[in-house]
Structure formats: C-alpha cells, structure tokens
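User: Please fill in residues for this 563-position structure.
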C-alpha cells in the first residue's frame, strides 16, 4: 500500500501519524485505567471524592485522545485516497491511448469506481479498527503486568486462533477473488445495458435474452461466490466470539487451579476480558471488509504498475518547443514508411495500415477518403500522435517525432472525433476570454438560441446529435491549434450546415493559416479539398486517376494525392 502513497504525502504525514499513534495508545491506557478504577471499587476500595474526580477526568481524557487519534488517522486515509484518485487520473492521461484501449474501459471503470470505493470504505473503518487494536494491545500489556500466566494463556489462545483463521480463510479468499472477477464482467454488461437501452427497449425478446442469459448468470455467480465467502467469514467471526468466552473460562475457571490468583487480580482480569469482547468482535467483523480492500488494493497496484510502465515520463510538456526551429524546405507533416498493426489475435486477417509515405504542407486542406474499415481513423490516430508507428517515423517541421517530444507534438492538434466526447465545462484557465469567444462561435454555429455560457459551463449539452457535433466543433475552435482534424464531422449535419462546414468553416480555418485534415464520405464536397488522400485496405492509393474516372476531379486536373 505504501508504494501507492506519494513520497511527499508520506513525509508530510509522518508527524500526524506519530501523534495519532501516541494519542491512540494514550486513549487505550485511559480505557485500561477506567477498567482498573472500576475493578478497584468492585474489589472493595472505598469510593472517595478524589477517586470520582480521577475517574471522570480519565473518561474525558479517553474521549479526547481516542477522538483525536481517530480523526488524524481518518484524515490520513482520506488523503491517501484523494491522492490515489488524482494520481490514477494523471497516469491514465499520460498512458499511451493504445495501452488504454488494450486495458479496456470496463476494467478501468471497475477499478476507478469499485476498487477505489472499496478501499475508501475500508479506510473509513481504519481509525476505529486502529483504536480497537491499540486498546487490545494495551489491555494485553496490562494483563501481562497483572498476571503473566493469564497473559500467556490468552496469548496462546490468540496465536492458535490466528493460525486456524489463516488456514480456514483460504477458501473464502478464493471466493472473494471470484467475486471481484465477476464484477469486471458485470461492469461490461452494464455498459452494454446503458449504451444499448434503446435497442433493447425496442425488442422485448432481445431484452429478455439479455437479462436472462447475459446479466443473470453473472449476477447469480456473483451472489453465489459472495454468499459462500461471507458464510465462512461470519462463521469465523461467530466462532471467534464464542471461543473468546472459552478463553475467559480458561483464564478464570481453569488456570487458577494451577496458578492461583488473588481475588482482586481475578476481578480485574474478568473486567479486562469483558472489556475486550467488543473491540475483538468488531475487529473480527471488519476482517472481510479489510480482505476485500486488500483484493481491491492488489488490483489498483497492478493497474498502477501497468500504467507506470506504459507512462512516457519523458514526454511531459516542457517549456521549450522542440519543433520551433523548422528544417529548411521540410513540409509541416511527413510520414516516412509509417505502419501500424492492430493485434487481431481473434481475427483471421489482422488489419495492418501502411507502410505510408505522406507529406502535408502548412495551410493545406486534406480530405482522407475511403471505404468503411479502410483505415482512415487509424491513419488519423497516427497523425494525431495517439498511436505510435510500429515502423517508420513521423516528422513535424522536419523534426522527427519520438517519445521525448510526442506530447508537444500532440499539442499542435485539435480534433473532433466521430465518437467525440463533449465536456460541459470550458477546460482552461483563461475562462473570461474563452467565454467571450465561445459566445461568438455559438452565434456563428447558430446555437446561441439553445446554449449560453454560465460561468465556465455551457448551459446545456442535452442537444440533438447534430447540435452536439457543432458544440464539439466550438470546443475544438476554442483550442486554437495549428492543425485541425475532423472525423466525419458533417455526417449528421443537415444539408445547409453541411454546406456551411465544407464551403465556409473549413476555408475560414485555411484563411487563418490552419492546416485541416477532414475524414469524409461527402463526395459532393470533395472538390473543396486542396488534396484528396484515399485509403484502401490500409494503403494510400493514387486517387487522382480513380477520382478522375469518377468525375470528381474534373475541375482539379493534375492534383497529387500522396507522395
Ligand atoms: N481497436 C481495434 N482493434 C483491432 N482492430 C481494429 C481496431 N480499430 C479498428 N480496427 C480494424 O482496423 C480497420 C480500420 O479501421 P478504421 O477505424 O481505421 O477504419 P475507417 O476507414 O475509419 O472506417 P469507417 O469509415 O467505417 O470509420 C478495420 O477493419 C477494423 O477491423
């Protein structure tokens, strides 16, 4: 667990943790003192005024020490969880997109929500459990001081119980692991459920099949594993409680036959043992939760290690722009023998893009065209630096893109993906200035009657799909990057806006010196491109001849496609 806590937090928290531990022990000593005072009165000591004052004073001190210890530990636990959440968020953002795709959204979501949540739940119990453990330790110390024989007897009992517990726990632990595995599957199903609600509501027999044959078996397996695991844990907890009485019986009824104790010691021992029942049984009931937390923690650690391994630390943004010095005569972007392969182990013929040689000049408007599944989006991902080439390399301003400058390379681009995500917040610091520009773009894209800017948020993102795409375009405009990429942006726009997009918005970007790459199936507007680049089965083909044949290039004789 400690490897997940940043060194700075560990350093900062050390004094607080030390105080919490000391306060915890002080509170437990107060508890033991309360037991001692009660037993002294029960053992025949005359209750004096001084004794009463001491008793209530110790009660108040116990309250103070225990509460401060619990609050400090609770705060430490929450700080760890807070930093864990932020660190995971950061690491995900620094992990190559390809790796995230391989990890899969359901798995990532299950870890970010359930595992971190389980860990947080255990962290909430940490202060009370810690208090109990300290109390048990102090009471055992007091017991050893009162009678080493009683302590030895009790200690032997505790060790035996711990060994038995360790052996018995193997079985529920296996079930707990199974429970957690089922959770990943449940998350996958629920994702399908939420994204496919409309399809399922339209067809009751498909919906019934989904519920009965997809969700039900997983939910049922989850329930079975969970119940089995909890059965053992509750058996262990109750048997532990019962055995505790056996231990009391041994110490009070059997042990004195061999090691006689004074009546005063016996009374105090009785009180101590009765006093221990509650903390011991509460610690026992937290065991399954702590177990779940440890399984969750293992998952978080595995993910953390995978992300750390994949993270390209060298690629963090530095102040110096490595692409500032342009190599004389170099195009803005150049692909040299770039290829990319999807690991399609389950496919008969895994898709391979490339090798691709392509140059794009500053201020050019390029249309990427081609059939479904030909590789346009894959090429776009390589252009954006979200996929790294397996072979060949990419150059920006004549400078080779590598792991050290990849992040700065990506900062040149703004994209609206076909499956874009619309943030409802303006994600930048200079919000006043950006809000002014956003209001202007809302008017330009005829969304001002629907959406306004409220603080740093768009008033709504509940819009039609075409309107949401326009909002995504505004978010992209606001980034004001030198290179724009639009993946089938116009696909769900009405004819009027489709025309506005191809004949006004893109030329306007070009006029502003931007380079624009458009993935498009709108052959009616192919003539608006400076250049057409066709992708077919992962390769660039000489489109000029093809397009000329189709009559699309009639007015653009002699245009080149790709190098
Ligand atoms: N994550 C992935 N894993 C494995 N194969 C993939 C993945 N994404 C795409 N592919 C494969 O790569 C090929 C090219 O996909 P890509 O999305 O680049 O096509 P596209 O030209 O953009 O298609 P469309 O016009 O339908 O959007 C497809 O045949 C698909 O099977």
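Assistant: Residues filled in for all 563 positions:
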């Amino acid at each position: 667990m400690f490897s997940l806590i940043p060194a700075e937090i560990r350093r900062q928290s050390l004094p607080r943790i030390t105080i919490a531990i000391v306060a915890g022990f002080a509170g437990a000593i107060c508890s033991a003192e309360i037991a001692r005072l009660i037993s002294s009165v029960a053992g025949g000591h005359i209750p004096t005024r001084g004794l009463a004052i001491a008793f209530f004073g110790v009660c108040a001190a116990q309250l103070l020490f225990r509460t401060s210890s619990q609050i400090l530990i609770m705060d430490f636990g929450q700080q760890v969880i807070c930093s864990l959440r932020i660190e995971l968020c950061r690491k995900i953002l620094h992990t190559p997109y390809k790796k995230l795709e391989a990890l899969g959204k359901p798995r990532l979501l299950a870890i970010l929500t359930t595992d971190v949540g389980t860990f947080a739940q255990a962290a909430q119990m940490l202060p009370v459990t810690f208090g109990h453990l300290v109390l048990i330790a102090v009471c055992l110390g007091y017991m050893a001081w009162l009678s080493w024989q009683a302590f030895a007897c009790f200690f032997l009992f505790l060790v035996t119980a711990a060994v038995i517990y360790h052996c018995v726990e193997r079985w529920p632990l296996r079930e707990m692991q199974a429970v957690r595995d089922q959770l990943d599957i449940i998350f996958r199903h629920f994702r399908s459920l939420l994204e496919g609600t409309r399809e399922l509501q339209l067809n009751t027999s498909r919906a019934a099949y989904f519920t009965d044959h997809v969700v039900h078996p997983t939910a049922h397996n989850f329930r079975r594993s969970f119940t089995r695991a909890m059965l053992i844990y509750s058996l262990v907890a109750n048997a532990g409680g019962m055995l505790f009485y056996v231990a009391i019986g041994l110490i009070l009824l059997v042990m004195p036959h061999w090691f006689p104790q004074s009546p005063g010691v016996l009374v105090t021992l009785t009180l101590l043992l009765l006093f221990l029942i509650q903390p011991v049984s509460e610690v026992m009931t937290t065991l399954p939760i702590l177990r779940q937390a440890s399984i969750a923690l293992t998952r978080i650690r595995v993910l953390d290690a995978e992300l750390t391994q994949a993270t390209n630390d060298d690629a963090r943004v530095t102040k110096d722009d490595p692409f500032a010095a342009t190599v004389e005569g170099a195009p803005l972007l150049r692909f040299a023998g770039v290829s990319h392969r999807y690991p399609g182990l389950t496919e008969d013929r895994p898709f391979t893009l490339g090798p691709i040689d392509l140059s794009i000049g500053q201020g050019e408007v390029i249309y990427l065209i081609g059939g479904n599944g030909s590789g346009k989006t894959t090429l776009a991902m390589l252009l954006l630096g979200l996929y790294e080439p397996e072979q060949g390399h990419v150059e920006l301003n004549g400078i080779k893109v590598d792991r050290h400058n990849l992040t700065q390379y990506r900062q040149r681009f703004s994209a609206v993906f076909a499956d874009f995500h619309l943030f409802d917040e303006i994600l930048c610091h200079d919000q006043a200035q950006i809000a002014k520009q956003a209001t202007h773009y809302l008017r330009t894209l005829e969304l001002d009657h629907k959406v306004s800017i409220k603080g740093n948020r768009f008033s709504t993102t509940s819009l039609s799909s075409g309107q949401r795409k326009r909002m995504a375009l505004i978010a992209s405009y606001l980034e004001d990057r030198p290179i724009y990429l639009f993946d089938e942006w116009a696909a769900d726009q009405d004819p009027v806006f489709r025309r506005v997009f191809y004949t006004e918005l893109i030329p306007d970007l070009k006029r502003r010196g931007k380079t624009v790459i458009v993935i498009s199936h709108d052959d009616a507007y192919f003539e608006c491109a400076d250049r057409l680049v066709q992708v077919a089965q992962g390769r660039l083909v000489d489109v000029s001849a093809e397009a000329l044949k189709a009559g699309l290039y009639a007015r653009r004789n002699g245009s080149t496609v790709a190098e």
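For context: The pocket of adenosine-5'-triphosphate is lined by residues 101, 342, 344, 351, 370, 372-378 (CB under 6 Å).
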